[in-house]
Design a protein that fits this description.
Layout (H helix, E strand, L loop, with lengths): L1 E8 L3 H9 L11 E10 L2 E10 L2 E12 L3 E6 L4 E14 L2 E12 L5 H27 L4
Antiparallel strand pairs: 1-7, 2-3, 3-4, 4-5, 5-6, 6-7
């Protein structure tokens, strides 16, 4: 499964980068995320354990986020149930106050009972991700049109 999208946000790339890199707060605004725990963090890398909730089934996995401040975040995982997962966020300044955010998701799920529910969650949620981040940016940084 691959998903790509982009949107221009009325916020600077530094603000959007901080918002996307704030993985610990994803459960506050992204449906399906039940909790996130940062295992290791430095300026350029996060090791993260997180859990999605698929109805009554919790799905726990480990991921790595490579951070290139204000330019790119690459999140990868090969934990079950993912065969391979890659989520790339790219940030392109339009001017001092606007940033275009590009999102690319590449996902290969392992066969098994969670494959279909995960595909449904990810297909449904992927199309809403940029919208949810825009809503979150408005909450955190103030409403901009």
């Amino acid at each position: 499964m691959q998903y790509m999208d982009s949107k221009v946000f009325p916020f600077s790339c530094s603000r959007l980068f901080a918002l996307v890199a704030d993985i610990e707060n994803y459960p506050q605004f992204l449906p399906g995320w039940s909790w996130v725990h940062i295992l290791y963090a430095d300026k350029h890398r996060l090791e993260v354990e997180q859990q999605l909730q698929l109805g009554p089934v919790p799905v726990r996995f480990h991921s790595t986020a490579e951070l290139d401040p204000c330019k790119r975040i690459l999140i990868t995982s090969s934990d079950a149930p993912f065969g391979e997962m890659s989520i790339e966020w790219r940030f392109a300044a339009q001017d001092d106050a606007r940033c275009e955010l590009f999102l690319t998701i590449d996902l290969a799920l392992n066969p098994g009972s969670l494959k279909h529910p995960l595909q449904q969650l990810l297909k449904q949620g992927s199309g809403e991700l940029l919208w949810r981040f825009k809503q979150r940016a408005r909450e955190v940084y103030g409403c901009k049109r």
